[in-house]
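re: ur question from yesterday

yeah so i grabbed the chain u mentioned. its 296 aa long if i counted rite. heres the sequnce exactly as i have it in my notes:
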Amino acid sequence: MKQQLAYSQMPDDGFTMSRGELCLVAAYQQTKWTEYWEGTRRRENKNLGAFTSKAITPMFGYGITNKISVFGGLPYIHNSSSAGTMMGQKGWQDLSMAVKYHALKKTKGKAAWNLFATAGFSVPVSDYPPDFLPFSIGIGSKTAQLRLIGHMLHASNFFATAQAGYVFRSNITVDRTSYYTDAQYNSNEMRIPDVWNGSVRTGFNNKYFRGDVHYAWSKATSGSDMRMNDMPFPGNRMEMSAVGISTLIWIAPVNGLAINASADKVVSGRNAGKAFTWMAGVQYVFKPFNKKNNEK
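ran it thru and got these C-alpha cells back, copy pasting raw so excuse formatting
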C-alpha cells in the first residue's frame, strides 16, 4: 500500500487549493515488517529477517483554478533486509500525476458537503527489475486511476472524508521465458491485476493544525497466492488494510510553511507484509505567479 502524505491538499482528500497556489513537499518515509502473509497464512522468514523500505519523495500540488488542481510526485526508494544474501534494490521508482476536480459543494445547516473526482496515472522512470519482490522498488506497471471523494466539513472544524478508486494496471515484461503461479505460463509477459482501494478518515482542521485518524484498504481484483516458501510475484493477489493517524502543523512565523507526519499499521493482509510505516515531511505553500497576493 502506497503511503499517502498529509499536506495542504492531496488527490484523495477533501481539501482544496486556490487558483495559483503552489505546494512543494519533501518527505521521508520508512516501512518495516518481519512477518508477512503467504496467501492468507501469516508467517516469518528467518532467511529474510526484517525487511525495510525507505523512500524520499519530492512532490508538488498546484491550483490551476479554484476547482481544479494538479499533483505530481517521484519517490526514490531503497529496499533491504537484515538477513540472507539477497541484494537490496534502490532507485527512482514511478512518476505519478493526478488532476482533481471539485465537482460539487452543498451547505446544509452547519456542515458543508463536497464531492471531488480525481484522474491520474503513473509510469516507471527507471529500468528497475519488477520480478524481484520484496526487494523490487516497484512492479514496473503503467497505471491509470479514477477516484471519487466525499468530504464533510462542520462549522466546528471537524471533518470526515470517504474515498474509493479503481487502478488500472498494465502487464509487465519479466526476465524469464516462463513462470508458474496458479498455472504454467510460457511467456515473459506477466499479467498484473487491477486494484480497488480507498479510505475513511475523521479529524479536526483549522489554520494552525490538522489531524485525523483513518482506515485504508487495498484489494487486487485477481491474481494468485504465494506458494509455500516461494518469493512473491508482481501478479499475486495482494490485499491489505491499515489503521493510522496523520497530522499537519503550520509554522506561524513563516507564512505557508508546515511540517507533517503520519504513522500506519497494516492489520490484515494477503500476500503482503504486516508493515508499520511512518512518515515525516516539510511543505511550503505560496503563490509564485501572483505578486499582489504575495505582497499582502
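noticed a couple things. The chain is about 0% helix and 55% strand. also The domain at 22-295 is CATH 2.40.160.40 (Porin).
anyway ttyl
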